Amino acid sequence: MLEYQAPRQDLEFLLFDVFKVQDVWADMPQFADLSDDLVRAVLEEGGKLAGQVMAPLNQSGDQQGCQWQDGEVRTPQGFKEAFTELAGGGWLGLSGNPDYEGQGMPKLLGCLLEEMFWAANSSLYLYGTLTVGAAICIEAHASEAQKALYLPRLYSGEWTGAMALTEAHAGSDLGIMRCRAEPADDGSYAITGTKIFITSGEHDMADNIVHLVLARLADAPAGSRGISLFIVPKFIPDESGNPGTRNSFASGSIEHKMGINASATSVMNYDGAVGFLLGEENQGLAAMFTMMNYERLSVGLQGLGAGELAYQQAASYAAERLQGRSATGPQNPEGPADALLVHGDVRRMLLTVRALTEAGRAFSMFVGMQLDLAKYKADPAAQALSELLTPVAKAFLTDRGFECAVLAQQVFGGHGFVREWGVEQIVRDARIAQIYEGTNGIQAMDLINRKVLRDAGSTLHALVSNIRSEAVPPGLREGLIAALDRLEAVTAELVSRSRQDADLPGSAATDYLDLVGYTLYAWLWARMAETAPQDQFGDAKRRCAEFYFARILPRTLALEQTVLAHSSSVMAMDESAF
Amino acid sequence: MLEYQAPRQDLEFLLFDVFKVQDVWADMPQFADLSDDLVRAVLEEGGKLAGQVMAPLNQSGDQQGCQWQDGEVRTPQGFKEAFTELAGGGWLGLSGNPDYEGQGMPKLLGCLLEEMFWAANSSLYLYGTLTVGAAICIEAHASEAQKALYLPRLYSGEWTGAMALTEAHAGSDLGIMRCRAEPADDGSYAITGTKIFITSGEHDMADNIVHLVLARLADAPAGSRGISLFIVPKFIPDESGNPGTRNSFASGSIEHKMGINASATSVMNYDGAVGFLLGEENQGLAAMFTMMNYERLSVGLQGLGAGELAYQQAASYAAERLQGRSATGPQNPEGPADALLVHGDVRRMLLTVRALTEAGRAFSMFVGMQLDLAKYKADPAAQALSELLTPVAKAFLTDRGFECAVLAQQVFGGHGFVREWGVEQIVRDARIAQIYEGTNGIQAMDLINRKVLRDAGSTLHALVSNIRSEAVPPGLREGLIAALDRLEAVTAELVSRSRQDADLPGSAATDYLDLVGYTLYAWLWARMAETAPQDQFGDAKRRCAEFYFARILPRTLALEQTVLAHSSSVMAMDESAF
After folding, report:
1. Is A315 on the interface with B (CB under 8 A)?
2. A204: buried, middle or exposed (CB in 10 Å: 19+, 13-18, 0-12)?
């Protein structure tokens, strides 16, 4: 059940044919000697780990869940061993800084592996992604000594990471958090307060857990400019860097959730815990946001992985399950019925999942590549593009991932609803990705307010201009140009109207993000169709591209209207009438 | 948690103002003396039962689930007592035949109560709706003696019903079922075979369980014309009609499911069980379908109830939860933050749920009214309309119900994902309604093939013509006419193209059903806005109508394109490429 095979052919097609990474990397000294063979070997090994080690624990992990007792958390059977393989294979340090024992690989490559790990076992990989995220934050903002102490141990997964942001009354609005930090005489800080929804805050899989905690100094300015970030390790490292004194914080309980049951989500109580300032005082939120661009792409990859996993199950079920007859006469006349695949409505569901998943994969790689260009070539256009597209990657990939999981479940009929088959788990697990790491509504507001209105749409315009210059298969050209024109017209109108209508950005945010997402997917399908080889694999790509343009891209016609509806359509209702 | 209040003001508005039931009923002798006061009293009592007896067990029922042991099923604590209240109050016999101790009330009224019961506790109400469904089938097709024996006991809920259709290899395709029936010397039949997914097939809440089982006689024609329907009671009634000998069938196990955990879904093994033919030999599927029109509307109401329940939770959360500030400046300057309700994106989610739910309620009542007109006035136009709209009611109400549950969950952020708050349960419970009682894909195929293409769209055209003659608020007129024109143009084109393109109906089915649904909701919003009183309640109705036209109806622009895409967009991909 829930078998998973890494889609290596598609990954290699995207890397080598669609994004021509050889050319991109040739220009970046860090990656110039990454041979195709090495990349293929990395994908192969990662795929094995995902399919053979992580995936087999996905369903049992969901069934067993995590157990909390007296502040300690026991993870499901086999998780510790599998995590040790994941960490020990160097996968968490894949894109880590080589100066501190990271592998120094491109983020782009990391994206491909992250998709596999998320697809194979999202609960298990959560312990990894939080570790990667903590390492990114430490690498960007910590002191030299802190980097030397923490990074190698995080890259190796000996120690894992956790991000402690949310408080019961402060979720999307971190500015009102209350957790406090008091300076101690030795340069450390005493951290006191309660955080909730702390993924991997406590578990039994590593020697130490490095919490990055947002807290407020007594004299800090109010709101989000008065928040500092602290490294708060479960065991305070001794002088040789080994886990020493147990720090004074503990898991108060774990949540019982809709999904990702094998991921431990803790209430954490910090009781004067020893913390070490990470970066500057009162700059904590900014530091946390550096990490968030990466984490948000990673959570987007969770949605993508869910879509791929769901597709694999549903496609194989639809090929084997015999039910009903084709509208054009029996296709399996010897059998009692035809395969589900003969039915147009079943194909509609499968092709929707596939078209959204394969475009999503291309999109995530494009964003990953911008992160690499920004980081390693200090390319300001790539930096702007990565900032523009990060909220889209987080929200659109996870919204579509959930849509895909639900569609794939539908292909199974009643078998999709019972736990035995495992498909319903994909739906339950995928749902969280739309919520955590900033809800998708928050992403949409970030896109429209900070990434589009702030520069009057010019970063987006630059991207669209580049797209217009690309070669496109003739059959898709007209549709793509219409979609690009529509996006640009809507964006210009939105920029202009938002000056008078302060509520418009919020009212239109989600629909606008979807409009951007569907339009960019059209571009990526055009590029994939243009690049696809003249063989069976390439034929399927071209069919999927046609399906996308005929059956999914028209959603932008609705979004064009709804984005430009006056904000009064949502704001006019009296609050008391809700 | 998960508190539920029946939306009585809206129900009364729809009944008395929008659908003017007094005028409709005045013309029907059976209902002519149904006073407004009596109707209000029924709604009030039903609302109390739903809110005070059923809803408080919704979450505990989910947590405890059902327990299977040695063929017997224990339902969650309190379920038996609550079911006794539901049944004892006469609610299951509300629209039942008064000749057999039913209450003889209109189906339309039954719809309103069903929505409440589904919303309050869908697992618990499932035991009721299967009982109502069995009674409808028996009333329509059974012998006089069978009616006299079974109907009073089903209406009173002393005995409950179950429908045994699905087999492991035969779900959507019932024609290939294998369960067999052999005539016995005493006029009964011996039923042998295994059925799966049998809702309420075994439980501990009633003295007897009346299974309606589809099975095949030895000499029956192959396929769906060779299926007969049998009454197979758990305890064979003795001569005085009391439960006698235990019949030879049993629950082999119950399913562990994504949701509706308190509803027992059994594998049923019939081992030469005594069955009594219901209706004619080999006419079983047709008999089952009579019942299905009612059951399908009922399942639609499950989706509707989920939307209403979800809205109530999310709206109250959004009013109380303080997070962030309004785009137009602080609205709650004394507090740490503004209520979620100030944010356009939160309002978009809430208004989507509300606009879809309130239109859905009006739609379900319209369909219920057609069922009454068809049954009690033998009105052929109403009969045709009820057949046309039943698949839309089942699929569109449940698809939108699930969409609404997911949106409402999103309003809660992280709290929507943890079990404690109960909102995630609404999502898990609502999901099944898209699958059972004929998947929504099956509904869409039924709509397009049997209800639209078969009469070349004339029933739909008659409905649209009637709609065109209605008064509409000026601000909505243009939008409504455009939507009606669009639906008619697409339908005509579909009818014409389907003659050449046999795969088109299946490929377009789901999108076409959605197009019908959204267009009819526009009509119902126009009618509600036109009818709404000049007070606060009426203002909210008008705001919702505007929201619907501005933000939801545009989805039909996309559907217009996708329905008319050539079927090759889904059929061209080679089967081996999936």
Report:
1. yes
2. middle
- The DSSP secondary-structure symbol of B167 reads B
Containing structural domain, residue A471: 439-569
Mean pLDDT of B132-144: 96
CA atoms within 13 A on the CB side of B53: 21
A347:B416 CB<8 A: no
pLDDT tens for each residue of B180-195: 999 999 999 999 999 9
In a domain, B174, yes or no: no
Q: Check if the beta carbon of residue A401 is closer than 8 Å to that of residue A306.
A: yes
A439 in contact with B at a CB cutoff of 8 Å?
Answer: yes
Question: Rounded to a whole number, what is the distance in angstroms from the first to the last CA of chain A?
Answer: 44
pLDDT in tens, A352-399: 999 999 999 999 999 999 999 999 999 999 999 999 999 999 999 999
Q: What total of structural domains would you count in chain B?
A: 1
Known catalytic membership, residue A437 = yes
Pairing between β-strand A159-164 and β-strand A208-217 as defined by DSSP bridges: parallel
CA–CA distance from A129 to each of A54, A158, B65, B177, B482 (Å)?
Answer: 14, 14, 34, 48, 50
How far the first Cα of chain B sits from its last, in Å, is 44
Query: Quick one: which of A353, A344, A357, A369 has its CA closest to A304?
Result: A357
CA distances from A113 to A107, A120, A123, A304, B23 (A): 10, 11, 16, 12, 66
Which residues have CB under 8 Å from A35's CB, separation 6+?
Answer: none
Whether B558 is in a domain gets the answer yes
Residue A314 contacts by C-beta under 8 Å, 6 or more apart in sequence? A349, A350, A353, A407, A408, A409, A411, A412, A423
Percent of chain B with pLDDT over 90: 96
Name the pTM for this structure. Answer: 0.98
Catalytic residue among B114, B437, B478, B560: B437
Q: What is the mean pLDDT of chain B?
A: 96
Tell me the DSSP string of A419-437.
GGGSHHHHHHHHHGGGTSS
State both tokens at B49: 């039962």
Q: Does B397 reside within a domain?
A: no
Tokens found for residue A384: 């702007």
Q: How does DSSP classify residue A176? A: G
Residue type, B410: Q
Residues 6 or more apart in contact with residue B141 via CB below 8 angstroms: B229, B278, B279, B287, B290
Q: Is A202 left (phi over 0), alpha (psi -120 to 50) or beta?
A: beta
Contact between A73 and A266 (Cβ < 8 Å):
yes
Beta strands in B173-311 (DSSP E): 180-183, 189-199, 208-217, 228-233, 235-237, 243-246, 249-254, 265-277
Per-residue three-class SS string for A240-256 = CCCEEEECCEEEEEECC
Q: What CA–CA distance (Å, rounded) separates A286 from A283?
A: 6
Instruction: Locate the chain B residue with the closest alpha carbon to A321.
Output: B169
Q: Cα–Cα distance between B523 and B516 in angstroms, integer?
A: 11
Name residue A322's beta-bridge partners. Answer: A339
Quote the tokens at residue A274: 């020893």
Question: Is residue A539 included in any domain, yes or no?
Answer: yes
Shortest CB distance from B546 goes to which of A169, A419, A569? A569
Do B323 and A172 meet the contact criterion of CB atoms below 8 Å apart? Answer: yes
A199 touches chain B (CB under 8 A): no
Place of tokens 């539901």: B86
Q: Look-up: residue for tokens 């955990």?
A: B261
Residue B241 is classified by DSSP as: S
Pick from B104, B552, B557, B78: nearest CA to B358: B552
Q: Do B574 and A539 touch (CB under 8 A)?
A: yes
Cα distance between residue A29 and residue A377, in whole Å: 9
Nearest CB to A410 within list B256, B439, B550: B439
The ipTM (two decimal places) reads 0.97
CB contact under 8 A, B554 and A556: no
